[in-house]
Amino acid sequence: MKIGFIGLGNMGAPMAANLAKAGHAVTGFDLAALCPEGVTAAASAAEAAKGQDVVITMLPNGAILRKVADEILPGMDQGAVHLDCSTVDVDSARAVAEQAAGVGIGAVDAPVSGGVGGATAGTLTFMAGGSEEAFAKVKPLFDIMGQKAVHCGASGAGQSAKICNNMILGATMIVTCEAFALADKLGLDREKMFDVVSTSSGYSWSMNAYCPAPGVGPQSPADNDYKPGFAADLMLKDLRLARQAAEAVDADTPMGTRAAELYAAFVEQEDGAGRDFSAMLPRFERRGRG
Ligand code: NAD
């Protein structure tokens, strides 16, 4: 396939490189980052998108996605598909898909789970929204960049799934961290705590796969001085998207709201900016009830 790839940052670069390695003709564009090996550089987003079968975007947020969509959609071929893998608000995903449909282009929103490690190894999970036809067209690309792709429904459904997943992740990471801090104060050994919880009803991905306590459980950012990994700033972004979505449909999400407040304080008033989202544990270690 002929593929345009716009947004070659931490995630986009290894994803584009994997597509090129698999034999696809990939043309890339980024405002700042360089093209990875095997990807041909274009001079603009519009140039990277022109004449391609599929154009992938991997951008920081919904406002930038809308701007790039304005640049690329008018010049794309009829019947081509725009595949957006960024994490953005549901409204932006739906608006961009509608804009694409208006000019005869298919659209799939397919945010990812798995981080930079998954992008590099080609083991991402994609959660996708869009028509059956558009999904079928990009499915072979999901198989290269990832290990699983779930077609969740119509446009916006991928972003909806991502937001719900990350709301659960943010809340479970916080409660896992506060439970470790409580266990410390109760004099409970951290290894014993992990041993019990990871095989009891309190288990979760945050505890079992990404344990926030250094030296406990599998290797995780806690063992690397809380260097991300998945930055607290990005978790805050996703929790805010969840809040925005909940407000739009009048859903009651008190735990998600509290998680957003705690990550906002951590990132914006404390020392959380640029640290892994599991660095909530040292935050709770330092604090009493006040
Ligand atoms: P990043 O900041 O490393 O990359 C984004 C890239 O977009 C940058 O290189 C930037 O120069 C480029 N860009 C910005 N505006 C542009 C424009 N107008 N035209 C062309 N390029 C432009 O971010 P990332 O970590 O690669 O994340 C990308 C998306 O993936 C985000 O939506 C993020 O929430 C999501 N995501 C990230 C992770 C992760 O672990 N990093 C995991 C899952 C999902």
Structural commentary:
With 290 residues, the protein is α/β, with parallel strands linked by helices. Helices cover 49% and strands 14% of the residues. The chain has two domains: 153 residues, NAD(P)-binding Rossmann-like Domain (Rossmann fold); 127 residues, N-(1-d-carboxylethyl)-l-norvaline Dehydrogenase, domain 2, CATH 1.10.1040. Helix 7 crosses helix 11. Bound molecules: nicotinamide-adenine-dinucleotide. Nicotinamide-adenine-dinucleotide binds next to helix 3 and helix 5. The site of nicotinamide-adenine-dinucleotide (NAD) has 26 residues, from helix 3 and helix 5.
CATH homologous superfamily annotation of the largest domain: NAD(P)-binding Rossmann-like Domain
Order of helices and strands: EHEEHEHEHEEHEHEHHHHHH
Helix content: 40-55%
Q: According to CATH, what is the class of the largest domain? A: Alpha Beta
Write down how many β-strands occur, each being a DSSP E stretch of 2 or more residues.
9
Mean pLDDT: 97
| Low-pLDDT residue intervals, each spanning 5 or more residues | none
Distinct helical segment count: 12
Largest sheet, in brief, is: 9 strands, mixed
Note the beta-strand portion: 5-15%
Q: Which structural class do the helices and strands define?
A: alpha/beta
User: Looking at CATH, which topology of the largest domain would you report?
Assistant: Rossmann fold
Total domain modules: 2
Terminal CA distance reads 58 Å
Q: How does the overall form come out from the CA principal axes?
A: elongated
Cofactors and ligands present?
A: nicotinamide-adenine-dinucleotide
CATH architecture verdict of the largest domain? 3-Layer(aba) Sandwich
Radius of gyration: 20 Å
